[in-house]
Amino acid sequence: MSPLVLVVAVAAVTVGSRVAALALLPAPSGRTAEVIARLPAPLFAALAAVSITGAAGSPDPGVIGASLGALASTPRRSLLATLVAGLAGYAVGTWIAGR
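The structure assignment produced for this chain is given below.
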């Protein structure tokens, strides 16, 4: 399975599960709504930190670019925008590194 197919499949499952949750479940309220409202930024920050520090040796420039792109897009609070920014950041990081 190619990396692009894998990314598209993961994105489809992620977006599909979010759409299903929005369509089928009632909106959260109270403290639960406050926690959920603050979840995406820390979640993406944790994923970026694990991606950058989890590799053996020096981090891949593509991963750094993807992490920076995804992190820059988190204020938009859009999963699609974050995925696109991460893919664009990966492409730019890889291009700059000459790989």
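Interim note for the steering committee: DSSP finds five helices and no strands in the chain. The mean pLDDT is 80.
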